[in-house]
Amino acid sequence: MTKTLSIYSSCGTPAGYRRHLRDGTDTCPRCKKAIATYMRRYRHDKGLSKARLIPDTIIQKHGIKVGA
Ligand SMILES: [Zn+2]
Q1: Between the CA atoms of 9, 13, 15 and 21, what dihedral angle is there, to the nearest 10 degrees?
Q2: Mean pLDDT, consecutive 10-residue segments, the chain of 68 residues?
Q3: Distance from the alpha carbon of residue 39 to the mean position of ligand 1, in angstroms
Q4: Is the overall model pTM greater than 0.70, yes or no?
Q5: How far does the centroid of ligand 1 lie from the alpha carbon of residue 30, in Å?
Q6: CA–CA distances in Å: residue 6 to residues 16, 18, 37
Q7: How do the domains of the chain map onto residue ranges?
Q8: What is the DSSP letter of 50?
Q9: How far does the centroid of ligand 1 lie from the alpha carbon of residue 10, in Å?
């Protein structure tokens, strides 16, 4: 198995990560780090925490006990 490293000029950015996906190439460490940072910032900007990613309706539907 060959290691695929930064092969695009956009590597190290979310755009580079998406380019890997589109081309079907392995994501390089720089792109993985970029998308992780991007997602963390995105969630932060939207004020989303893990708990809020699950809507109340889903919690009720599945009978998930919260803080019981
Ligand atoms: Zn890359």
Answers
A1: 90
A2: 74 96 94 93 72 66 69
A3: 16
A4: no
A5: 6
A6: 9, 13, 17
A7: 14-61
A8: T
A9: 7
